[in-house]
Amino acid sequence: MLRQRTLKTLTKAVGVGLHSGQRVELTLRPAQPDTGIVFRRVDLPLPVDIPVSATAASDLRLASTIANGGAKVRTVEHLLSACAGLGIDNLYVDITAEEVPILDGSSASFVYLLQSAGIDQQNAPRRFLRVRKPVEVREGEGENLKWARLDPYHGYKLSFEIDFAHRVVNATGQRYVFDLGSGHYSRDIARARTFGFTKDVEMMRANGLGLGAGMDNAIVMDDYRVLNADGLRYDDEFVKHKILDAMGDLYLLGKPLLAAYSAFRSGHAMNNQLIRALLADPQAFELVSFDDEREAPTGFGLPARAW
Hints:
Layout lengths: L2 E5 L3 E6 L6 E8 L6 E5 L6 E4 L14 E3 L2 E3 L3 H10 L4 E5 L12 H10 L1 E7 L2 E4 L3 E5 L6 E6 L4 E6 L5 H4 L4 E5 L5 H4 L6 E3 H9 L12 E3 L15 H14 L6 E8 L3 H12 L5 E4 L19
Parallel strand pairs: 4-8, 10-17, 13-17, 15-16
Antiparallel strand pairs: 1-9, 2-3, 3-8, 4-5, 6-7, 10-18, 11-12, 12-17, 13-14
Helix pairs in contact: 1-2, 1-6, 6-7
């Protein structure tokens, strides 16, 4: 049987929120089978649980935010991407502020935390959401066109193409395909950092965003070059970060996907539109589990590899 996974023990981190700039403490704790991933705002007078779900998404400007009533948690996508990449099904995330710490701007620190705590297989079948027919969302035309799509696939594959009118980005790979069954999430995707442009900083901060951003947690570019002294981690780090984000956004489904995801210039809001469109059509998906691991997609029964 392909089993659900949680942590063997708890693990902690301290950092600042990318957009809020607030100090935040994070504690990742094991959870029982079928719990899913649940964020818990322990700083509130009465702690509030915010279970991960597609419909819990609220503010999707430059990050994915989930909410339960007035309580919210911002920028959940990098941690959720790490959970998707390592196959973590059940987890409590205790948090002392309204935003997940950005750490180094990628999901690598979260991968390290999860693997350091140890990953435990549970005595319950892992349930996948298998896409049965294509689902697509589109916006705009011509230069403003963007779209995202899910197709049936026995596994989990992501293809993303970016299109930025910037000389540095244009000089890198702008399309990448990643198959989770390769077992190389940690090596090929997790280290890709979020990125931004100096010209956008004033606009973002006027809107209460990017208050905790800096060169220790993001790739920063002016009109001509990358300003970070250590340059890029991957030749195609920009598009790989978009795949990292998409994996986190899609994990808001609350179940691992069996599908081929493809996108052109998509972002957090469009990714959420896509999974809501999927859930709105009961004929487009089914829940499946694998009593015999040999029937599961290649690589899915194996623990995710380290670096």
